[in-house]
Amino acid sequence: MKKTSKRIISFLVILIIAIVLSACAAKAPGDDSSLEGSNQLYSVSNNESSKTVSSQSSTDRYAEKTEKEVAKELDRKVIRRATLDIMSKEATVFYKKIVDYGVSIGGYEFSYAISNYDTYSVIKADFKVPPEKLVDFISYLEENGDVINSSMTSDDITDSYYDTATRLETKRKSLDQYYELLKKASNIEEIVYVQKIIDGIIEDIEAMEGKLKVWNSQSDMATVSLYIRQNNDPVQIRKEIKWDTLSMDDMSYLIKQSFYGITNTVVSLLQWIVVLLLGLSPLWITIGVVIYFIAKKNKKAKANKVIVIEEKKETKSKKKE
């Protein structure tokens, strides 16, 4: 029992030391507040030369911090997105040109969907292009197609990205320390306890790595969403209307859109009625046959009734005679 108690106490001491080391490793890089305080005390208690050395080391630290910030600025993580609504005489032909140009500047087609109607087509597609080529790509679309609506957004995730990268490095160092601690575990209870902590750290590391991977993918290539319609599309794309004042042109457009919407609804309803009637035609035929025989039977019964009434009248007239 004494040996077991000593082992447990030793393990707890080692575990506490590991936790303290993890906390020290989790400290943000460049945080030298304690060192800076000691330098200040040293400069106050010593001669002018010591003050000069302390001031110089502080300046070096600030210079080092500035270099890190500059390096961070050079590798900023920005997610860029653009959305464009475009009208074209031939949607499929125009889209083929877009694909060729996108590939020529280092981009690629990310998703594609086309809806073909009787006389026109509608294409929805997403492109990935290098961020530095985004403006060139949009300029090409504006020069070769009729861009009705467009928008562009940029989301700077630099701080979040590098904070996550720093925390990931800290987690990895902490994981190495717990692996060392696991080697020193002397019984099942200690192994299970440390392994549980290790599993939690691994889960955090995988989540951070996945997040960084997604951010890298989003920031390395800009996303351009395209919505292409043909000029003969009855429901054409329209520029955004300012609702504070409606011009006659805007009112005409809204009336036209309402007319198309109502007409499409009515025609669709009539089409479904025809489909329903044709689909249930066997039932209607059966009901018609049944109604025919019932009507025929009723007509025959009515004729027989009339004959009987006439015979009764003739009998009565003969009796009177």
Low-confidence sequence ranges: 25-63
Tell me which oligomeric state these chains represent: single chain
Biggest pleated-sheet summary: 5 strands, mixed
Sum up the overall morphology in one term: elongated
Residues in helices, as a percent range = 55-70%
Rounded radius of gyration (Å): 42 Å
Count of DSSP H/I helices = 9
How large a portion of the residues is in β-strands, by DSSP E?
15-25%
Number of strands: 5
Ends: how far apart?
140 Å
Strand order of the largest sheet: 2-3-5-1-4
Tally the structural domains. Answer: 2
Mean pLDDT: 75
How do the SSEs run, as a string of H and E? HHHEHEEHEHHEHH
**Class derived from helix and strand content:** alpha+beta
Notes on the structure:
With 321 residues, the chain is of the alpha+beta class. Helices cover 69% and strands 15% of the residues. It is built from 9 helices and 5 strands, in the order αααβαββαβααβαα. A hairpin with a 4-residue loop joins strand 2 and strand 3 (121-129). Helix 1 packs antiparallel against helix 6, helix 2 (33-45) packs antiparallel against helix 3 (48-74) and helix 4 packs antiparallel against helix 5 (134-144). The N and C termini lie far apart (140 Å).
